[in-house]
UniProtKB/TrEMBL annotation:
PANTHER family: HEXOKINASE, PHOSPHOTRANSFERASE. This is Phosphotransferase. It comes from Astatotilapia calliptera. Keywords: ATP-binding, Glycolysis, Kinase, Nucleotide-binding, Transferase. The keyword Ion transport does not apply. Pathway: Carbohydrate metabolism; hexose metabolism; Carbohydrate degradation; glycolysis; D-glyceraldehyde 3-phosphate and glycerone phosphate from D-glucose: step 1/4. The lineage of its organism: Eukaryota, Metazoa, Chordata, Craniata, Vertebrata.
Length: 467
């Protein structure tokens, strides 16, 4: 036992050399937050936003729910692990958003990398099948479309895809209006109709679904397959939107932070490799250090290098460990489990065909913990930037606010590190974290419902004004 401990200790020292570049000090996180603060301004600026890596996209969502919304809605959710179709009912009296029915449709990987027409035809087919099997085909329900990619939204129902991220790269969609592509695909079938469409980013859906419960929820954050956040900004600061009064939800697209090289000094050789081998090199550098699509691969690359350097597995790399993508992000949270983590590590390493020792298993735990902690700390730095900005915008000494959160990485990993780090970086902000209940589904319906409420109150006001 003693020699095992000694071996473990000396091995940990060597391991430290590999992991040190992933350990970000509070000062570095403060610096990251300061750089993002500048990038938020570039994204909001009239003349700087074209080149800004953090896009700061207006969403045309001007209000969070006030509890009077109601009705039946359809929702589509594309951009996470699955594509889903939902029927959602918003009930005013009970202040409830009910998921009536939902259906998951798989999107095969070839389709994620195929043509846009194939993708949208598939979406229209899934929606058609859903309407048919739920006897909804005769109705023309409003539809919330959660499309979790960076889009330049011109109106609530006009949304141009800037670029694909995560696992998608369909041809002929970038630069096009996604609502139009959906409508064309539905038209090609010609067997059903949809009502008005509201385009929703998943962060916005998350904020809105939490906003129904807690009206001080003004930030939505996703740490899942990708990462991103939205928040309520003063319209007068959004220089490319007309108007001075009120607020609008801005989809920050913070995943693009670092795309101009401003984070190069904190990137490790492993981050550079993950980016190089991704389907969209050079795009969403910050996201690639944080989100579920990439964390497992970063861990794998570190383990491969350590094995090559004879620090692990007697220097033997198994076929699985040597294969891109086979160390899944979910292994990280399983290995991090406080009680069963070591046992899980042993099981996973066996399944990966590795000849492991007890020391190896605990080193793997340390690697997983370091890389998931860096993800949490970077998110904390970015979130701190947003809450500090909201506090400054409102000239408040102290801000109390709620962040709606979703995504597998947030749900499956310990959140205490993230929350502690935000408190450190934004000491004058008191933040409540609310895990969203299906922001991409129910939240999309909520955005559509709020848009309808505003449209109705605007047309009532306009009629009154002309009377
Ligand atoms: C997309 C965002 C999205 C985030 C989380 C990113 O890759 O660009 O629009 O909100 O993933 O799903």
């Amino acid at each position: 036992m003693r020699s095992l401990r000694a071996a473990e200790a000396s091995s940990e020292e060597l391991v430290e050399k590999y992991l040190q570049p992933f350990q970000l000090s509070p000062e570095t996180l403060q610096e990251v937050s300061a750089r993002l603060r500048k990038d938020l301004l570039r994204g909001l600026g009239k003349h700087s936003h074209h080149k800004a890596p953090v896009k700061m996209l207006p969403t045309f969502v001007r209000a969070t729910p006030d509890g009077t919304e109601k009705g039946d809605f359809l929702a589509l959710d594309l951009g996470g692990t699955n594509f889903r179709v939902l029927h959602v009912r918003v009930e005013e009296e009970a202040q409830k958003v009910l998921k009536m029915d939902s259906q998951i449709c798989a999107i095969p990987q070839e389709m994620m990398l195929g043509t846009g027409e194939q993708l949208f035809d598939h979406i229209a087919t899934c929606l058609g099948d859903f309407l048919e099997s739920h006897n909804l085909k005769g109705q023309t329900l409003p539809l919330g479309f959660t499309f979790s990619f960076p889009c330049e939204q011109l109106e609530i129902d006009k949304s141009i895809l800037i670029r694909w991220t995560k696992g998608f790269n369909c041809s002929g969609v970038e630069g096009k209006d996604v609502v139009q592509l959906l409508k064309e695909a539905i038209h090609r079938r010609g067997d059903y109709h949809i009502g008005s469409v509201a385009m929703v980013n998943d962060t916005v859906g998350t904020m809105m679904s939490c906003g129904y419960k807690d009206q001080s929820c003004e930030i939505g954050m996703i740490i899942g397959t990708g990462t991103n956040a939205c928040y309520m900004e003063e319209i007068k600061n959004v220089k490319r939107i007309e108007g001075e009064d009120g607020r609008m939800c801005i989809n920050t697209e913070w995943g693009g932070f670092g795309d101009d090289g401003c984070l190069d000094d904190i990137l490790t050789e492993f981050d550079v490799e993950v980016d190089k081998t991704s389907i969209n090199p050079g795009v969403h550098i910050f996201e690639k250090m944080i989100s579920g699509m990439y964390l497992g691969e970063i861990v794998r690359l570190v383990l491969v290098k350590m094995t090559k350097d004879k620090l692990l597995f007697k220097g033997q790399i198994s076929e699985a460990l040597g294969t891109c993508g086979l160390f899944e992000t979910k292994f990280i949270s399983e290995i991090e489990e406080p009680d069963s983590g070591l046992e899980n590590a042993k099981k996973i390493l066996t399944e990966l065909g590795l000849d492991w020792s007890l020391v190896d298993a605990s080193v793997v735990r340390l690697v997983c913990d370091t890389i998931s902690s860096r993800s949490a700390y970077l998110c904390a730095a970015a979130l701190a930037t947003l809450v500090n900005r909201i506090r400054n915008n409102r000239k408040l000494g102290h801000l109390k606010t709620t962040v709606g959160v979703d995504g597998t990485v947030y749900r499956k990993h310990p959140t205490s590190k993230l929350q502690k780090a935000v408190r450190l970086l934004a000491p004058q902000c008191d933040i409540t974290f609310l895990v969203s209940e299906d922001g991409s589904g129910k939240g999309a319906a909520m955005v559509t419902a709020v848009a309808q409420r505003l449209k109705k109150s605007c047309s009532t006001m306009c009629t009154k004004a002309s009377e």
